[in-house]
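Researcher: Please predict.
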Amino acid sequence: VFRNYQWGAEKRNTTLWYSDNFVGTELNVGVEYAELAKACGLKGVKVSTPAELEQALVGAIEGQMQRNETTLVEVVLNQELGEPFRRDAMTAPNRVAGISMEDMRE
C-alpha cells in the first residue's frame, strides 16, 4: 500500500482545475494500514526508506514462499503531486445542464 496521506490523483485534479485549491483529499494520519493488516491476521510492515522497503519485500517473499504467510507492506511516501497519468483526461469539468428549483421535488 503506497501511503502518502492523500488521494493524490484527486488532489492534483482539483489543484489544476480550481487555481491550486483542494478539499476532501487529505486522509487521516491516524490510520495505519500495517496495523489494520495485523488486526486481520496478516503480517503488517510499515516502511519509509528504500532500504526498509527492500528488507520488507525480501521478508514478505520469504514468508509467502516458506510459511504461506501474507504480508501487507505499507510504504510511506512524500506528498509531492506528480503529473497526471493521462494528460488528455485533465480538462476542467464542463457544466452539462443547469439546476433550477423547478427541477426539485417538494
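Model: DSSP finds three helices and three strands in the chain.
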